[in-house]
Amino acid sequence: MIAVFAELLELPAQKIGYAGLKDKHATTTQYISVESKYEPLLKNFQHKNIKILEKTRHSHSIRMGDLKGNRFSINLYDVDLMDAGKIEKVARKIAKNGLPNYFGYQRFGRDEGSVAQAKDMLKGEVFIEDSKIKSFLISVYQSHYFNEWLRERIILSREKNNSEFLLLSGDVLLSKDGKLSTPKIVPTKEFAQNKVVPTGLLCGRDTFRAKYEAREIEERFDDEFLQEKGQRREALIYPSNIECKFVKKETMLTLSFSLPKGSYATVFLESIAGKNYTAKDVKQDKSKKKR
């Protein structure tokens, strides 16, 4: 889409602002920004796959990360009325209790080979010249360890806290005003009221590390020698604005919901279904439908 507008307006693609990427196989809406002087060129724009829905003026261009979240609407087929009720009940329970904020399978490549490639690159066994690919592989490496850490914490929560996320002393917590803290005494009341959310480590330099009991688990999924900048990522997210519309004639349930930026709709669907998917699974499923 960016390439189409760049060609139309005769300007470099880098001059077109957008906040983030969208799913490849979907009907999506996206805000982009260009200088107001190009507005007349958009008046008679026509394209078979792209439609301008609205135009507005703003004092700033859109930058990567200028995003609060995404709204999803997904059609689930071969669903009967009873299943539709179960799906809605589970979805609303997840929205209340929180969804483990895993990186989705899309993050790790079609055959999940990106993780092994990232590890080989960091060991010096593979040389990557392209800076974008190198940056991508580092993010894959960080995401992989985050997912492994989160999986460990979810298992612990199942064993010791009836599947509700178990806070540990020294967890790095994110408050609603964006501040990070590592309290020694677990603030269970604040957590129950959604005033704080636990975070996991995206390993690297210049970032918070957990302390005390929480650090004992976190350090197993940390690479303190990684030179790239680290971050914290919410361990739990709370899907919102859940709507379910069942079409009996088509045995179809349309599930609509909102998620914070950086989270994956596929992870929400996996949690509802109670199973994990890979890119290979999805590809095989699509090929079966074609046959």
TrEMBL record:
Domain of life from the UniProt record: Bacteria
A GO cellular-component term linked to this record: cytosol
GO MF term list: catalytic activity, acting on RNA; lyase activity; pseudouridine synthase activity; RNA binding
Location of the TRUD domain: 98-255
One Pfam family per UniProt: TruD
SUPFAM superfamilies, per database record: Pseudouridine synthase
Keywords recorded for this protein, A-Z: Isomerase, Lyase, tRNA processing
GO BP term, example: tRNA processing
Similarity remark: Belongs to the pseudouridine synthase TruD family.
Full protein name: RNA pseudouridylate synthase
Organism: Sulfurimonas denitrificans (strain ATCC 33889 / DSM 1251) (Thiomicrospira denitrificans (strain ATCC 33889 / DSM 1251))
